[in-house]
Design a protein that fits this description.
Elements lengths: L25 E4 L3 H12 L4 E4 L9 E2 L2 E2 L2
Parallel strand pairs: 1-2
Antiparallel strand pairs: 3-4
Length: about 70
């Protein structure tokens, strides 16, 4: 499916801060580290945020200060 060219899209590597985005609600696709950090920052800045994530479970990489690898 294609997305309308009127909908602004950027990759997380291009994101700088909430003020750099057009006004309005934001859809963050992906719940990895960058996606969650960006969603939190936008929400704390007063933006309406929708976070889209998959159904795959995730395990913590660290527990009580120790690597889980």
């Amino acid at each position: 499916a294609s997305i309308s060219p009127t909908v602004a899209q950027i990759h997380s590597s291009q994101y700088r801060n909430p003020e750099a985005l057009a006004p309005g609600a934001v859809l963050v696709v992906g719940s990895a580290q960058s996606g969650c950090q960006i969603a939190e920052e936008l929400q704390e800045a007063g933006r309406q945020v929708f976070l889209s994530l998959g159904s795959a479970g995730r395990f913590p990489m660290r527990y009580r200060g120790r690597d889980m690898d």
